[in-house]
Amino acid sequence: MSIPSFVIGIAGGTGAGKTTVARLVTENVGESVTRIPLDNYYEDLSHLDIEEREEVNYDHPSAFEWELLREHLRELLEGRAVDMPQYDFELHNRKDETVRVEPTDVIVLEGILALYDEAVNDMLDLRLYVETDADVRILRRIQRDVIDRGRDLEGVIDQYLSTVKPMHEQFIEPSKKHADLIIPEGANSVAVELLEEKIQAEANGGETRTWERLDAEGDAKDVNDVKGVAGPGGLTDDEN
Ligand SMILES: Nc1ncnc2c1ncn2[C@@H]1O[C@H](COP(=O)(O)OP(=O)(O)O)[C@@H](O)[C@H]1O
Ligand SMILES: Nc1ccn([C@@H]2O[C@H](COP(=O)(O)O)[C@@H](O)[C@H]2O)c(=O)n1
């Protein structure tokens, strides 16, 4: 059991490549990394029947149980294990089982709105936004939803036009302003290699440098001993 020293958030539109980036940057780090898919924190909708659950807007922030996510992140950051919910995309609901997650040196939170919530953002040391063109993303999504998530083509298109696209424009894309780094085209090999190096360093004992996040005026923001790497203009190294 360890106290996590480095928490990364990876946001971006559906199909942008978030899961792929999260997998690639952590696959050689072994057991020192915990991946937390934001999808696992969709609200429990057991009180609705399947037809009602099919109609829910899953791209609006209100679809997520933010308080539970914040609580789990806080617990992990304090070195305590949590029981993470699991999600079933075919049933549009949480599964009955949970998975025990132990705190590890590095934690990766990944999902469309990973950079949306202020309290969550404050717990992140490095905020990434994966940016991929909308036409590429919808093509990837059609393929994935039909093959892996038991959807039909017409349903995927209807959902995209009615909720996925408008919510992307209203909530997901604007959350990019919270990112320290923007990764073009998902699994961009240069970005992946740089991040992999950083994560491996953190997982192998990490650095002891302490960074302060700057607010819009360039003053140090009151965050609790945030550790991380420098993004464009966002962080200062108080050792320098
Ligand atoms: N840079 C890339 N080039 C080609 N295909 C990619 C790239 N990044 C991701 N993919 C593919 O796109 C699909 C969606 O990627 P995924 O990582 O699941 O996206 P997200 O988690 O953002 O929804 C997957 O089939 C993945 O293999
Ligand atoms: N029951 C659900 C829950 C979520 N979705 C969609 O998943 C997308 C987020 O996952 P990504 O891997 O694509 O980032 C999101 O856009 C939701 O529309 C769903 O279709 N059904």
From TrEMBL:
Sequence positions that bind ATP: 12-19
Keywords: ATP-binding, Cytoplasm, Kinase, Nucleotide-binding, Transferase
Coiled-coil stretches: none
InterPro entries, per the entry: P-loop_NTPase, PRK/URK, Uridine_kinase, Uridine_kinase-like
Record-listed E.C. numbers: 2.7.1.48
Domain Phosphoribulokinase/uridine kinase: 7-187
GO biological process, any: CTP salvage
Ranges of biased composition (kind: Basic and acidic residues): 209-225
Main location: cytoplasm
Subcellular location: Cytoplasm
Pfam families named in the record: PRK
One Gene Ontology cellular component: cytoplasm
Pathway involvement of the protein, from the record: Pyrimidine metabolism; CTP biosynthesis via salvage pathway; CTP from cytidine: step 1/3; Pyrimidine metabolism; UMP biosynthesis via salvage pathway; UMP from uridine: step 1/1
Record's catalysed reaction(s): cytidine + ATP = CMP + ADP + H(+); uridine + ATP = UMP + ADP + H(+)
Disordered, as annotated region: 205-240
Major enzyme class: transferase
Domain of life: Archaea
MF GO annotations: ATP binding; uridine kinase activity
Family: Belongs to the uridine kinase family.
HAMAP family from the UniProt entry: Uridine_kinase (MF_00551)
PANTHER family cross-referenced by the UniProt entry: URIDINE KINASE
Protein name: Uridine kinase
The encoding gene: udk
